[in-house]
Amino acid sequence: MNRFISQVVVVTGGGQGLGAAMAHRFAAEGATVIIGDVDLHTATAQADSLRAEFGAPAEAVGVDVTDSAAVGAWIDDVAGRRGRIDVLINNAGIIRDNRVTDISDSDWRAVLDVSLSGSFYCARAAIPHMRTRKYGRIVSFSSMSWRGNFGQANYVAAKAGIVGLTRTLALETARDGITANAIAPGLIETPMLASMNAAAREKLVAKVPQRVTGQPADIAEAAAFLAAPAAGYITGIVLDVDGGLGIGSSIR
């Protein structure tokens, strides 16, 4: 498919992991991919790889999504040089897991600043450019954990905030040809999951109705679906990509 030919797709945290998988998918479908990442080295390597594989325009920018002014300048620069921003993927995020009583002020702020505030800053900067053209797709990343998860109060608060932010963005931009949706991944094969010991991993996978973990490509597929022109009548939803884990069935 070539759903994103001539489109400009901005991906935060696109230098590695799920962000890189999504950047790859959009480039494969003809998009000009703009990767924003606090780690310029990984972002540049990813952009170089996309250009080499697909021959499509791709660029990397070192940007800290917690810096409101830097985000605004970056988004305005992209829109000015490229003439448009069609898709914004709010993927940047970090974890600093601990029990509530052991979460430091700095770890609380860091997680919310990157995942939630960063998504807000990027959306706020991109929406005016999308409104000008009466078209846009915003896809932000929540998590299956947004419903609550032991030892992740900061992460859960950020990801639950993404749900509320997404629904509000959807309402405020509904008449502008812009959609705003969220993706809530489950157990996906990432370096973090791979670092778990075998016993802990098996325990988690046993809770998934499909009894398997997901792949980064599963997330990229979901993002491409929600960001595609054909998904224009879908807005304000949270799409679980979790093998059924979020169903919460009491019968196993």
From TrEMBL:
Residues 7-186 form the Ketoreductase domain. Keywords: Cell wall, Oxidoreductase, Secreted. It catalyses: a (3R)-hydroxyacyl-[ACP] + NADP(+) = a 3-oxoacyl-[ACP] + NADPH + H(+). The keyword Oxidoreductase applies. One of its GO terms (molecular function) is 3-oxoacyl-[acyl-carrier-protein] reductase (NADPH) activity. It is found in: Secreted, Cell wall. Its main location: secreted. InterPro entries: KR_dom, NAD(P)-bd_dom_sf, Sc_DH/Rdtase_CS, SDR, SDR_fam. GO terms for biological process: monocarboxylic acid metabolic process. Gene3D superfamilies: NAD(P)-binding Rossmann-like Domain (3.40.50.720). Belongs to the short-chain dehydrogenases/reductases (SDR) family. This is 3-oxoacyl-[acyl-carrier-protein] reductase MabA. It comes from Nocardia macrotermitis.
